């Protein structure tokens, strides 16, 4: 059994920060490229695809690090329903992120667009199918709305813990170096 810790592993905190920036950038880039009517749309789409695949790599790394590192206990002031809600929001964020990336990847195959990540050609998840492309494109948009809503909930909860409650939840993710040990064994 791992000894209790008072902050997340530094690599997990780094991945959290990188992913937060990329996910927010992706949401705004997605809205911009869909609304774009000038010649910048192909470049925006290219960036969106590359960032989406980079997010898949980061998400995979994050899930691995999360599986093998200790996580700090939530403070006793967090009620059971809040613990369940926090767990559900985290699970939904991971699920929607993975789903969004996979739907975007499948969408490219359905549109018969080649997908590349850096120098590698990425195999299509599905064959060319215009009808499937339409369904996947719609799903991609709705998942983005869901992600945006969950990000707002997650950020609001983090701000409540950091600014109002000051109970250590915020600093467990954002302190610059890992602190000492703290009693407790409830994992997030």
Q: Can I get a quick summary?
A:
About 70% of the residues lie in helices and about 5% in strands. The protein has five helices and two strands, in the order αααββαα. Helix 1 (about 10-35) runs antiparallel to helix 2 (about 40-70), helix 2 packs across helix 3 (about 80-110) and helix 3 runs antiparallel to helix 4.
Q: Can you tell me about this structure?
A:
This protein is mainly alpha-helical. The chain has one domain (10-73, 80-174): Up-down Bundle (Fumarate Reductase Cytochrome B subunit). It contains five helices and two strands, in the order αααββαα. It has helices at residues 10-35, 41-68, 80-110, 130-165, 169-174; strands spanning 115-117, 120-122. A two-stranded antiparallel ribbon has the order 1-2. The longest helix is centred in the C-terminal third of the chain and has 36 residues, at 130-165. The two termini are 15 Å apart.
| Average pLDDT number | 89
Unreliable parts: 178-188
Q: What do we call the CATH topology?
A: Fumarate Reductase Cytochrome B subunit
Cα radius of gyration in angstroms = 19 Å
Strand order of the largest sheet: 1-2
How many strands in all?
Answer: 2
Query: CA-to-CA gap between the ends?
Result: 15 Å
- Strand portion, in percent? under 5%
Whole-number count of domains: 1
Work out the helix count.
5
């Amino acid at each position: 059994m791992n000894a209790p810790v008072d902050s997340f592993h530094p690599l997990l905190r780094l991945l959290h920060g990188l992913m937060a920036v990329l996910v927010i950038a992706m949401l705004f880039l997605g809205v911009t490229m869909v609304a774009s009517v000038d010649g910048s749309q192909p470049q925006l789409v290219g960036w969106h695809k590359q960032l989406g695949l980079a997010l898949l790599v980061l998400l995979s790394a994050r899930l691995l690090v999360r599986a093998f590192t200790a996580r700090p206990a939530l403070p006793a002031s967090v009620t059971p329903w809040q613990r369940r809600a926090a767990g559900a929001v985290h699970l939904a964020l991971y699920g929607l992120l993975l789903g969004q990336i996979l739907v975007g990847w499948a969408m490219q195959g359905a549109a018969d667009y080649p997908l590349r990540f850096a120098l590698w050609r990425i195999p299509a998840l599905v064959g060319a199918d215009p009808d499937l492309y339409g369904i996947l494109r719609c799903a991609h948009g709705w998942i983005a709305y869901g992600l945006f809503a969950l990000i707002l909930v997650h950020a609001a909860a983090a701000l409540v813990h950091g600014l109002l409650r000051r109970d250590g939840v915020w600093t467990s993710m954002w302190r610059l170096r890992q602190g000492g040990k703290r009693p407790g064994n409830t994992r997030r």
